[in-house]
Design brief:
Strand order of the largest sheet: 2-1-5-3-4
Order of helices and strands: EEHEEEHHHH
CATH topology of the largest domain: Ubiquitin-like (UB roll)
Number of helices: 5
Mean pLDDT: 94
Number of domains: 2
CATH class of the largest domain: Alpha Beta
Length: 162
């Protein structure tokens, strides 16, 4: 069986797959990484977002063969309940999760954005999160969390359109 060597959450890993075009999502999950969520399977909802080389990607449309030699970060590689990452802490402070299904993908997309653009504008934030869907309607709190994580003042949702 072909093996694809990479680093996942800071550790050396070998993902095996009979099919080199198998989506990374399924290769990760078959190796016990169930923190990577299954959503639409079409790259449209963002639930399966992981970081590959620091870029937010939809793991359901990335072939496993393309990650050989790369660094992958899932939500478990970001922080812990005892020591949350600043983006996670901002999501907690702003109560930016309801059901929580989209939250891992949102957080990883925000991490990629803030690595590129430490003080993003509201337009840049919305653009970075455009591929992450939240059916619960926590969008305003998510935007506030991104501003908090970037050290910017929050907008007043009662008076200012984001």
């Amino acid at each position: 069986m072909p093996t694809y060597r990479c680093r996942v959450n800071g550790r050396a890993a070998q993902l095996e797959s009979w099919d080199p075009t198998q989506p990374l999502l399924y290769a990760l999950r078959s190796h016990g990484m169930h923190d990577v969520k299954i959503g639409c399977g079409l790259g449209q909802c963002g639930s399966c977002t992981v970081l590959v080389g620091g870029d937010a990607v939809r793991s359901c449309v990335v072939p496993v063969e393309s990650i050989a030699g790369k660094t992958i970060v899932t939500i478990k590689g970001v922080g812990s309940p005892e020591n949350p990452d600043p983006v996670q802490a901002a999501f907690i402070a702003e109560q930016a999760a309801q059901c929580g299904y989209c939250t891992p993908g949102m957080i990883l997309s925000v991490k990629a954005l803030l690595a590129r653009t430490p003080k993003p504008t509201m337009l840049q934030i919305k653009d970075a999160l455009a591929g992450n869907l939240c059916r619960c309607g926590a969008h305003t709190r998510i935007l506030r969390a991104v501003l908090r994580a970037s050290g910017q003042p929050p907008f007043d949702s009662a008076r200012v359109k984001p």
